[in-house]
Amino acid sequence: MTEEQMEEARSKMLNTFAGLDNGEAFSQIFNDVTDILFGIVNERGETTDEDLLEKTQWRLENTLGYKPENDFDVQA
Asked: Angle 38-60-62 (CA atoms, 0-180°, nearest 5)?
């Protein structure tokens, strides 16, 4: 990912919190991150490291509103 692509992605993610004051945005992010952390703790030892990493990445992407350009669905 180039610097320009990262900057464009950051700009899109900031839109997730547009209209919220700083306290509301912080509270939303804090709650989402603690939910992710508790999910990691609960799933540790119950799933593979690779699956846990992917789930964590997806949760963070959802929290920040990040939609990767190269996102694709795996068909089984």
From this structure: 115
Nearest to 32 by CA among 59, 65, 68: 59
36-60 tens-digit pLDDT: 999 999 999 999 999 999 999 999 9
The rounded distance, in Å, linking the Cα atoms of 13 and 53 is 21
To the nearest 10 degrees (0 to 180), the angle between helices 22-43 and 49-64 is 170
Placement of tokens 């089984």 in the chain:
76
Rounded Cα–Cα distance for residues 25 and 20 (Å):
6
pLDDT at 15 over 80: yes
In angstroms, how far is the first alpha carbon of the chain from the final one? 28
